[in-house]
Amino acid sequence: MLNQSAPMSEVTVTEPATPPSASLGERRASMPSAMKLDSFKVACSSCNLRELCLPVGLSQPQLVHLDSLVGARKSIKRGDALFHTGDPFKSVYAVRTGFFKTRISSEDGRDQVTGFQMAGELLGLDGISTDRHACDAIALEDSQVCVIPYGQLEDLSREFSDLQHQFHKIMSREIVRDHGVMLLLGSMRAEERLAAFLLNLTQRLHARGFSASALVLRMTREEIGSYLGLKLETVSRTFSKFQDEGLLEVKQRDIRITDEAGLRALVNSVRC
Amino acid sequence: MLNQSAPMSEVTVTEPATPPSASLGERRASMPSAMKLDSFKVACSSCNLRELCLPVGLSQPQLVHLDSLVGARKSIKRGDALFHTGDPFKSVYAVRTGFFKTRISSEDGRDQVTGFQMAGELLGLDGISTDRHACDAIALEDSQVCVIPYGQLEDLSREFSDLQHQFHKIMSREIVRDHGVMLLLGSMRAEERLAAFLLNLTQRLHARGFSASALVLRMTREEIGSYLGLKLETVSRTFSKFQDEGLLEVKQRDIRITDEAGLRALVNSVRC
DNA sequence: CGTTTGCTTGACAGCATTCAACGTTGGTGG
DNA sequence: CCACCAACGTTGAATGCTGTCAAGCAAACG
To answer: Which of residues 231-270 of B touch strand C (CB under 7 A)?
Structure first.
């Protein structure tokens, strides 16, 4: 029910798994400055994320067409925005490396984190609705995205029904994910929310070849709290409680799950 | 921010407005039994909802093609389901008359209302993700929907880019709406939630030619509470409070907004 | 007309928030 | 290299909003 953006299937990338303590993003010394458009392109057909990203299910010949569509990569530095609310919508983006959050703001300044995106997940679908982006997308670490011009994606979708269908599935999956978050926000208590959040994160990391039991949080307690509809103090307290109960080992942003079954039981428990 | 499924533009249907006290659904004495497929088809090109529904922005020739796609109407009796979680996904549905809720359920029996749908709005988009419906759609009054076979919609979308784009916009709009609900559930207090809910409902009803200040709720306090992440008692108390403060006149499900500005101020107020 | 379902209201309890203080970490500049 | 600062995280105590439980009332339905 709370399965989020990650594909449901247990896909594992062919690339050797990096230990979870390592960054999800590349940490090259020569990282280009924020928002710079890298001159080189990366072919979807040879991308190790192709089983997690837009190309899922496409045949080799179709992939070649997709290669022509996907523009250059773009690098975004930690803390910078890939796009802001109100920006003209031109492209959707596939996270290649790194980690993002999306958030919306109400007029009175409250804001709400609406999602966290990792490698292979798409950003910017909200912009189709009004031709302007409806949220901010902020990099939580130095990241790279593939730029997918939306007009060209529509054009190619009309030629290849497999691509069309895959794109529709991705949008539909986002809707289903959002409904799961509504269930979480509407009916779960703090412990259940945090447990569901951690299980979702590890599941998605596991699908990308990382450990299912250890992770490094890329976001602050406040960002977790915003996503889960809790205050940062409540998030912190709940982490401590989980640690006291032997479910987790928490050392700042390093989390090790020591009792996954216990966490899972929390999520499924009836409100007592 | 909380604008929901309704189109942003202030569209008014050409049909004369029915008083809000009248049912949103037809109450024909000879209403066919639940789920019966009516034999006659209704052309989108002559439907008075065409400015609120899938056909938005399509030219007359394109509309004729859409007519060939949209199957017969289907009637659903109050309390019956248009589809259930797990049902094979074959079609999306456009509400022609009546009123629906969608809900998801967690394993432990808690459920969450994820939306209310009225005339012109689409149902079933969640099913594209896994080829099975991911929620239940329940009619809150006797209703009729237009059946839109999804495979044919994809086919036609590849022929007509306007239709393709409109369909994408509708999916994107649902994503944006869901994010607005997350903001509501994650950061608003009971009064703010109910005020936002009422304003959203009246806005959508107004776009359909109904009064912006009077409405008849089609759902119970419990369903409102589920959607807003509140218990039914809290919903009831908040209605009473609004009445005491002169914002509303509440008589069971008949609501009259007597101070819209006051309601609006509530939504935009900072948590004090 | 009786039964069921939905709505309202009161009293009380509990969970999350608020406010506050303190500890930790990482980056910057002297 | 170290000190300092800012951002982040932890924890305690008290408040309050919403949930829970219960009773009574109103409306809808057969």
So the answer is: 232-233, 235-237, 239-240, 250, 252-253
Q: Could you say which of A1, A102, A111 has the minimum Cβ distance to residue B104?
A: A1
Q: Which of A64-78, A138-152, B111-125 has the lowest mean pLDDT?
A: A64-78
CA–C1' distance A222–C12 (Å)?
Answer: 32
Q: What is the mean pLDDT of chain A?
A: 87
User: If pLDDT is split at 50, 70 and 90, which confidence band does B269 have?
Assistant: low
- Is residue B204 assigned to a domain? yes
- Segments forming the whole domain that contains residue B26: 12-177
User: Taking CB atoms and an 8 Å cut-off, how many pairs form between chains A and B?
Assistant: 169
From A126, A152, A177, the end of a domain falls on A177
More reliable by pLDDT, B161 or B10 = B161
Q: Does B48 contact strand C, using a CB cutoff of 7 Å?
A: no
Is the domain of B157 the same as that of B200?
A: no
Reduced 3-state DSSP string for A214-259: EEECCCCHHHHHHHHCCCHHHHHHHHHHHHHCCCEEEECCEEEECC
Nearest CB partner across the interface for A179, out of B126, B270, B271: B126
Has residue A32 got a pLDDT over 60? no
Of all nucleotides, the one whose C1′ comes closest to residue B187's CA is: C17
Q: What is the pLDDT of residue A38?
A: 54
* Residues B107 and B208 both lie in one domain: no
Q: Which residues pair with A255 in a beta bridge?
A: A215, A250
Q: Are residues A128 and A194 in the same domain?
A: no
* CA–CA distance, A113 with A228 (Å, rounded to integer): 8
User: For residue A135, which residues of chain B lie inside 8 Å, CB to CB?
Assistant: 179
